[in-house]
Write a structure and sequence with these properties.
Arc Repressor Mutant, subunit A; disordered N terminus; alpha+beta; 109 residues; 3-stranded antiparallel sheet
Length: 109
């Protein structure tokens, strides 16, 4: 797989399937990778994360990874989690007893 990039243009060539995906911006490329290779959209991934965190409470990245059954690119999952933290949907905080950073759903104030 070849990846070429400039400031506003990113193209992915996959020589095995002879397909070419041309998108504007890196976020679109990552969304395409998530949907194309793993068959799950970013919105579906976000809803699965929220569902798991609402049932299980706070989870470390590794625990969340296991609950999701994620076998794909970890950068995609980390980006989705970072977006959710920035938007204030979930919180990333230390759990001193477990010596881990955990994610949990933000409590209503």
């Amino acid at each position: 797989m070849a990846l070429s990039s400039s400031r506003s243009f990113v193209a992915i060539d996959n020589q095995y399937t002879n397909t070419r995906i041309t998108l504007l911006g890196l976020k679109g490329v990552l969304r395409s990778i998530v949907e194309g290779f793993w068959g799950v959209s970013e919105e579906d991934l976000r809803s699965r994360i929220l569902s798991i965190l609402s049932k299980r409470g706070s989870l470390s990245f590794e625990e969340l990874l296991a609950e999701l059954g994620w076998s794909g690119d970890l950068r995609v999952l980390r980006r989705v989690l970072a977006d959710m933290v920035r938007e204030g949907i979930i919180v990333k905080e230390p759990d001193y007893s477990r010596r881990k950073i955990v994610y949990r759903i933000r409590r209503a104030d």
